[in-house]
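Worked example

This section walks through a single chain of length 218. The input is the sequence exactly as stored; nothing has been trimmed or padded.
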Amino acid sequence: MKLNERSLAFYATCDAPVDNAGFLHKKGGRHPAYHRRWFVLRGNMLFYFEEPASREPVGVIILEGCTVELVEAAEEFAFAVRFAGARARTYVLAAESQAAMEGWVKALSRASFDYLRLVVRELERQLAAMRAGGCPPAPRQPRTLLPKENGCAVWSAEPPAAPAAARPGPQPPPLPPRRRASAPNGPPPSAPFVQLHEWYGREVRALRSQWLRGRAQP
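Given that input, the structure is written out below as tokens.
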């Protein structure tokens, strides 16, 4: 896939909300030294810069088909972004705290379109159950971060099996009806990726806020 450097630089530094951002220590590809870089996650692209104020990224990592693992390394709070294939590069990164590491591992594991497909299937499953006249099924959650075993743990975004009975408690609010592709208030089908990312990101944040308010109600 060919990537236009000018378009990537614009997307990396545009004013659209980011999915995650912060300093990470990145291990060099040819040398074992770590370099402190400013990382920005937008969709399935992980950009890294010399400094937060830099106008162009030093590089970008496309996160499709990767796995995120905790690893033992010279730096504390280290994790690796691995890709399948004998010649594929492994990116070793290190956060500056345990909380930052867990946040990055979760965000990177959920950044691919494969994870979004799982989320869409889950929402469609709940919507189909509601249209059938039944109660909405309990949402299936991704697995939590596994504890370290032999110095390595893997984050999996694969949903576990559905529980035998739903736990008591507040249910998530009903999902909005499926929006038609020709809806006048939606983005046009030919909209650029930056506009689509900002549009659907705003919608997802609104739905999440509505769900959190529903959970907070007694």
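What to look for: The chain has a mean pLDDT of 76.
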